[in-house]
Amino acid sequence: MESMRKKPHPRRSFASEFKAETVELCRRGDRSVGQVAEDFDPTETAVRDRVKRAEVDAGERDGLTSGEREELAA
């Protein structure tokens, strides 16, 4: 009997402009994270993570900003 393990999905990439647009729709309150994910096809988790990252970068949420994360990585 063959393994029941699922094949991994290929990782998709989206343009930074697309990511910014989906975050903006969520932050303005035009659509929920779930609606954005359904309408534009990224996963709900990906959209939620991008919104959280935008909130940290804007100083609205605690955490390392994108710039700080890049600096630490370097």
What does this structure look like?
The mean pLDDT is 89. This protein has one domain (16-73). The chain is mostly helical and 74 residues long. The chain has four helices and no strands.
Give the CA-CA distance, first to last residue. Answer: 48 Å
Helix and strand pattern? HHHH
Overall structural class, as computed from helix and strand content, comes to mainly alpha
Binned, the helix content reads: 55-70%
Q: Give the averaged pLDDT, no decimals.
A: 89
Number of structural domains: 1
Radius of gyration: 16 Å
Which blocks of ≥5 consecutive residues have pLDDT under 50? none
State the major sheet.
Answer: none
The total of beta strands comes to 0
Q: Topology, please?
A:
Blueprint: H1 16-28, H2 33-40, H3 44-57, H4 66-73
Brief summary of the model shown:
By secondary structure, the chain is an all-alpha fold. The protein is 58% helix and 0% strand.
